[in-house]
Amino acid sequence: MDGTVTAVSSNGTYAFSKPNRDSITLLAGLGVEGDVHAGATVKHRSRVAQDPTRPNLRQVHLIHGELFADLHRAGFDVTPGDLGENITTRGIHLLDLPVGTLLHIGDEAVVEVTGLRNPCLQIDAFRPGLLKQVVGRNDAGELVRRAGIMGIVRLGGEVRPGSQIRAELPTGPHRPLDRV
């Protein structure tokens, strides 16, 4: 259940992609310092339009870097930060984690997993046909979202490429991830 950070990204303005950085600072209860999606209440435009007072369960977006290799094999050139994630990982099966998992990242930061990213049509505006690569159906006909997970910052700290990630599973029955 351990992994490594391979890239970190943030953007102070609304844009689909986020430029890579040397490091990012996670702020408890808010998200990524200086990122447009940081805040205690929702910041994603569609969520703000529905109810701007709702808690922000999407403070940090993490994507497993292995997804980029899958996309490359399907003919899509996608690199860290392109899909708007803040943290790109390797070696940890993010999509298999239950809700409430604590991700200890680097020396101090802790992110609590809240759910799956719900990919939207902006992905196809970025690369036509890409949405079908990150959302599909399994053999049982169930919807499968592969565009990463979302979380909230429990403890702040600096995160940089090379930072180690350790997953601490919640106690009790585990709830599978669903879109947030």
From TrEMBL:
Organism domain of life: Bacteria
Ranges of residues in domain MOSC: 18-168
InterPro entries noted in UniProt: MoCF_Sase_C, MOSC_domain, Pyrv_Knase-like_insert_dom_sf
Family annotation (PROSITE patterns): MOSC
Pfam families with a match to the protein in the record: MOSC
SUPFAM superfamilies: PK beta-barrel domain-like
Coiled coil spans: none
PANTHER family (alphabetical): METAL-SULFUR CLUSTER BIOSYNTHESIS PROTEINS YUAD-RELATED, MOSC DOMAIN-CONTAINING PROTEIN
Name the UniProt record assigns to this protein: MOSC domain-containing protein
